[in-house]
Every structure is written in structure tokens, then in C-alpha cells.
Specification:
about 40% helix, 10 helices, globular, binds phosphoenolpyruvate, single chain, alpha/beta, TIM Barrel
């Protein structure tokens, strides 16, 4: 049986309080499509006001520290994130793996912290263009998945996002046959890592998804939704992606 589709907007470092109205507009569109799940992960500053503005809509964070508290200036724990009103966190986004040097072990620890706090986790994996050109894309992505994979995995709280680094923010999208191959490889790897229950873990595609290509990407076997950056910032752009998933 196909998994319920999950469409997640990653606002990255975009959005001031004025943009709360966009989250309201997006939540209104999502509320018309009860057969799918939709979330927005705004910057941390907007989590609490967004959760207050649209209490029935899923708001998430973009990162979380693995420690419960302590000397980690500028960081937020999973309990703090939960307290803001977030229900999940993106973890191990390629921008953080590159800019903040996050390792697979860091991502695994973060995922376990998020789970312990009762939040959902979206673990991101993806190859660089050089790795794809070298024919190593599947090996790299499955290696990241294994290294980042948390204890006590379950579809109740865990989602995987396949995001080829070279497709993020570039307007370039892999061939659907390449997406199909990678999502099948991830599904197979999930089976090895967690056995029963692997089929229910949702695997999102991310990288330049937009209203024009969403339907084709979401129709690929084992693509259970999308993680969307630039095209999630307004209802005008994100609405068609939600509708393509519904
Ligand atoms: C992302 O950063 O998660 C992403 C998919 O970005 P974009 O949709 O802008 O490529």
C-alpha cells in the first residue's frame, strides 16, 4: 500500500514576521487536503508565532543539537524546539553537512535526541555532482543513511529525504529513472537496517521541486513526498506542489 504523501517546506534562512501570512495561506491550502501531510520548517524565530497562528498546521525546525543542555552557545535542544511548538526537525541537510561540518554520527545523535523529545525527524542524504559523475551516488547515499541511522527507528517518527546536492537550488532535477533507482536503493537499505516497518518509512525527494515538475516526481515509485526549498516560500508556489501530492 502506498504511503501517505508528505510535503515539507524548508524555508532555510528566509522569513521575517511579515511572512507569517504566507504560512497562514499555505496552512489554508493544506487544510483542504486532509489525505496528505504538509509541514513548513521556518527559521527558528518564526516557529512559535507560526504555531500560534496556525495551531492545526505542522511546523518544524531545521536543526537541533544532540545534547539536552549545556555549554553549546547558540544551539537549541530538542526539548527547546518542542517547547516552541515544533513537531519535527529536518536533520543533516547538505547545507549543514557542508557549512557546519555535520557528520553522519552527529546526525544520528541528533535524530535520537529529537526522538527522545517526542519529535519527528527528517534525515537528509544526498550525493554531490562529482560523486554521481563517479558512479558512486547509490554507495554514498546508502553509506550516509547507515551512518546517520538512529536507534529505535520507526515510521511513526522517522522520514528520510533524498536530496542530490547538485539539484538543491539549482533548477536542475535528476531524471525520474535516477530518482527511481535511488529511492529503491534507499528502501532496500532501510529494509536491511530496520527489517519490518521499512516500507512505511516515508522517503521524500528534494531538489528544485516546483509546481511544474512535482506531479512527475511524486509519481515515481517509493517517492512518498517532497522536501521543498525555494518553492515553499509562498502559497502561490507551494500550493501547486501540495495539490500535485493530493
Ligand atoms: C532544500 O534545500 O531542501 C531544497 C530542496 O531546496 P530547493 O527546493 O530550493 O532546491
Amino acid at each position: 500500500m502506498a504511503n501517505r504523501k508528505f510535503i515539507v517546506g524548508n524555508w532555510k534562512m528566509n522569513g521575517l514576521h511579515d511572512q507569517l501570512s504566507d504560512i497562514g495561506d499555505i496552512a489554508a491550502i493544506a487544510s483542504e487536503h486532509k489525505d496528505i501531510d504538509v509541514a513548513i520548517c521556518p527559521p527558528t524565530t518564526l516557529i512559535a508565532p507560526a504555531a500560534e497562528k496556525v495551531p492545526d498546521f505542522m511546523i518544524g525546525a531545521q536543526d537541533c543539537h544532540s545534547a539536552a543542555n549545556g555549554a553549546h552557545t547558540g544551539c537549541l535542544s530538542a526539548d527547546m524546539i518542542r517547547e516552541t511548538g515544533a513537531l519535527l526537525s529536518i536533520l543533516g541537510h547538505s547545507e549543514r553537512r557542508a557549512d557546519q561540518h555535520e557528520t553522519d554520527a552527529d546526525v544520528k545523535a541528533k535524530a535520537e535526541a529529537v526522538h527522545a523529545a517526542g519529535l519527528g525527524a527528517i534525515i537528509c542524504v544526498g550525493e554531490t555532482e562529482a560523486e554521481r559523475d563517479d558512479g558512486k551516488a547509490v554507495e554514498v547515499v546508502c553509506g550516509q543513511l547507515e551512518g546517520s541511522f538512529p536507534e529505535e527507528p520507526s515510521a511513526d517518527w522517522l522520514t528520510i529525504a533524498y536530496e542530490p546536492v547538485w539539484a538543491i537550488g539549482t533548477g536542475r532535477v535528476p531524471e525520474t529513472s535516477d530518482v527511481e533507482e535511488m529511492h529503491a536503493a534507499i528502501r532496500n537499505k532501510l529494509g536491511k537496517l530496520m527489517g519490518d516497518g521499512a516500507d512505511a518509512v516515508r522517503i521524500l525527494y528534494g531538489g528544485s521541486m516546483n509546481g511544474g515538475n512535482a506531479a512527475a516526481l511524486l509519481a515515481v515509485p517509493n517517492v512518498d513526498g517532497g522536501l521543498v526549498g525555494g518553492a515553499s516560500l509562498t502559497a502561490e508556489k507551494f500550493g501547486p506542489i501540495i495539490e500535485a501530492a493530493a
